[in-house]
Amino acid sequence: MEKLLHTEKELVKKLKEGDSFAFEVLFYKYRNKVKGFAVKIVPAQVDPEEIVQEVFVKLWLKKEAVDPGKDFQSYLFSIAKHLVLDHLKSAVNRKLYFVGEHFQQDLLIDEGQENMLQEDAEEKLQRLIDEIPERRREIFRLSRFEGLSYKQIAERLNISENTVDSQIRNALAFLRKEFRKFIVLAFLYFS
Length: 191
What we know:
By secondary structure, the chain is mainly alpha-helical. 74% of the residues lie in helices and 0% in strands.
């Protein structure tokens, strides 16, 4: 009979070697702690169980990189934090993609706060669009609000399609960067 693994360091070492039993022991030991951590930092639209599953899948896939000499719990929380940030970035990018009337349609927060946040977000978005340099803003509006193709915009403004593309990319990069700040602040305010 194999001797029982007593220390976390031994479990992490076995995990690194691909031992599925060690992985299972670590999973059951830490899943509730990771879930508790996730609950504190994830927005309402992200299921903390999903984060827990993703953390441990990522742990298993990158088990060879685990350092048994370092604090294992900190390592797990670091993975969780990065996954939550990825979810937030992804949510912001999805919102920016649907700029316009459907911008806030699927933002999941408490009903009482939804209208207030939607109005704030639409106001903030409009202010940010107004901050874009005039020519870039015109190109962005023709694309996103009037639905013109890059070719149609290029012909209308007598510029190249590459210029249209780069101006829209620059506008979106600016909006993503600035709107992320708003989303994070709103998340902190409404949590």
